[in-house]
TrEMBL record, chains A, B, C, D:
The lineage of its organism: Bacteria, Bacillati, Actinomycetota, Coriobacteriia, Coriobacteriales. It comes from the Bacteria. Pfam families: MIP. Belongs to the MIP/aquaporin (TC 1.A.8) family. This is Aquaporin family protein. GO terms for molecular function: glycerol channel activity. It is a multi-pass membrane protein. The chain crosses the membrane at residues 40-60, 81-103, 136-154, 161-187, 216-238. Gene3D superfamilies: Glycerol uptake facilitator protein (1.20.1080.10). It is found in: Membrane. Keywords: Membrane, Transmembrane, Transmembrane helix, Transport. GO terms for cellular component: plasma membrane.
Length: 241, 241, 241, 241
């Protein structure tokens, strides 16, 4: 039981090192890739997730919403839901701390020069336009497509873990670019709330309001709705799992 | 019979959520990825189609022109042609409505600030240079390559659905960038006319002429010509199907 | 015998439609993707070649230099070398004419507005810095890596045509970006001289000198040197074929 | 014994031709792809490594740190460690010389026009912010993820060399973009010190200080730490090799 929980923690942390890391890279001063844009960042999120699957195998969820869907489908025992979710949240927090350790010098030179909201958004997803119900709807839809996609890929991919991982990366690429522009495609409590907590705790200069209300209501809840719908859809309509 | 028709509807809708969605993302104000450019957009169209195949399997056409080619080759019964085409057209419409629901706040803040033609072109394909015969020729050629490519990929890929889906994405990537600059590579009645109808119906501010003449004559007809030639070519020259 | 020669003609033509097409797209006025840059263009060249292999299978050379290497290795009979090379050259010419037909309206609106040298370079490869011996060396090296790579990929890929085709695209991507900046990575007589002839023949306004001396001496000869070395290398050092 | 050592030399050289080459391409004047940005460059590094694996097979290390990890795991005999490391260092030097030969005309026209530090950084990795302990930590972490990833990919990929090579490219893509912005992701003595020596020796105009202290202390040592941890991790936690 220790190993899978540890794998959830480590894989989620690694995902966040890639994802928060690439936002540090493109947003902060003092990095080589400053200003490299959204294709650069979303490609890293997408294929950083592939790397997590390469390393930790196809069993990891890295996401409480995905864990919920897999519990509903009987792929993960319900008794593991809370341990997995806690490990993932802590992994999200730890990964953001590691990314901050990597980019700490860039945070230093960016203090007072890079907009405080942009620095906060390195960690957590926050929409440009404040509209809670719409954001909730978007995160639910995005997660529905995301979780349905992963489950289908796993179904069709069988034993070919590498191909499964590459296809999951491609899925994140497309969802991020096509459906992510309003909310930043959290689709995962651990991806949003873990790094949001890190922003709260880390000694970053010029902090702005951390928008917990948005974080808890939208990326905190909507992915469960989307993932539950996805579990029903893949089982009921696609007839897999 | 219900399931495959429903799959056509849903897969086409999902494709359009990706494709119209990414145009919202890059064209409208108020999105995070505003101005991310054509590589960003075409990558999303391309691998969004891969995702549709990951989820709905290799049997879906998502395109009346492709349905025609598959009927000609005996892969889909002729009795399904009209039901498929209708489901796909409705899917294209529904997908554009979902994309609009996701990006509705961005449409709002863009009203009067983003050029009306650019907003219309989020939905449908319209050339920069008005030349109906040339556009017809281009859409026929593009569809010929597109449909021939998919059929060959399906032939060589066999059971490996994930690899087939990735290769179809790569095909769309190359066709879009290399052959798409004049007409926007519709190659599909459902992709163009479904979202064009959505633009007609949705409460978008500052609408411009919807260019139905172009829509019906070029993306409405030319893809059938290209797809029929593709069916003859893969059967007669390549000797597959 | 007719079929493989026709396949050489058609596949080379298709490759050039992608490649010359994407240069039209990024260079000419009046296209949607004007100014999309080199990553956009090289990605299209790379994965356009994957598409040619998807459609025409792994047997096509699309390149007299590759045909030479395959003749040296006994993969193609020497009696086919001249017919293949002629079919490929004509394919290169035909493909450039098709690309011109697709983008003819953009050529029209670009006349006198886009630099004549840039328009010529849509078709053929010409270095920014005139240095024949250096360019010869570069094209030989590039072709050596390119042909060695394809032969190795074919060896390791076996029957998995789709994966082979994707990997060849990845190879072209890397060679184009990493080794292509001085000469434009022709690596193929049919890719350079076919479209160069098309530029000579087509009614394009404001033509500039067509640089045949460069075309014939560098992309006309150096790829044979690189490909012959590649044949010796894969046979003698890698021990394949 | 000669063949594998020669393969280390040649594969490392080829990797550096891609990597140093693409930096020439984007940094120097007189190249076609000048200013193409970091996505362009990192994509080339990533998939250039895939090409090296396509050509030389899955056995090559191309990296003394990777050789160390494989010796620790019993995949490479310890007696080969020093010969491999020397061959790799010389390969890194030779590859940088070949890249310089390819781009020599561009070096010429860039003299006095492109910043001397930018020219030096074509060859070797040097951080924008001088902080030795932080850089050491970053290079150790990056190498840990890099080597763990490759070993896992090799484990899951088995005989499918092409898929393994593509996945290694994807790994480098993600690590480079997400974790590379502070130090330039050397992760390899041969990649940094070989080209650094080439910069020392080649007749480049306007040379700046070559920063050997950084080169020897950070990319010279930290990758061994990261790779050793990776060997322990994949054996002890993942239970592979």
């Amino acid at each position: 039981m220790f190993k899978p929980i540890m794998a959830e923690f480590l894989s989620t942390a690694l995902m966040i090192v890639f994802g928060v890391g690439v936002h540090c890279d493109t947003v902060l001063n003092g990095t080589k890739y400053h200003g490299s844009g959204h294709l650069f960042a979303i490609t890293t999120w997408a294929f950083g997730i592939s790397v997590c699957l390469f390393v930790f195998g196809g069993g990891v969820c890295m996401n409480p919403a995905m864990a919920l869907a897999q519990c509903m489908l009987g792929l993960v025992p319900w008794s593991m839901f809370v341990p997995y979710a806690i490990a993932e949240m802590l992994g999200g927090l730890a990964g953001a701390v590691v990314a901050w350790l990597i980019y700490a010098d860039a945070f230093e030179v960016s203090a007072g020069k890079v907009d405080g909201v942009a620095v906060r958004n390195i960690f957590s997803t926050n929409p440009l336009i404040n509209d809670l119900p719409r954001s909730f709807f978007i995160e639910a839809i995005d997660t529905f497509v995301f979780v349905s996609g992963i489950l289908s890929i796993a179904h069709f991919g069988g034993d070919n873990l590498l191909l499964v991982a590459v296809c999951v990366g491609i899925l994140v690429w497309a969802v991020g670019m096509g459906m992510g522009g309003m909310t930043g495609f959290a689709m995962n409590q651990a991806r949003d709330l873990g790094p949001r907590m890190a922003y709260q705790l880390l000694p970053i200069k010029g902090k702005v309001d951390n928008n917990w209300r948005y974080g808890l209501l939208v990326p905190g809840i909507a992915p469960f709705v989307g993932a539950a719908c996805a579990a029903l859809f893949v089982h009921g309509f696609l007839g897999i799992f």
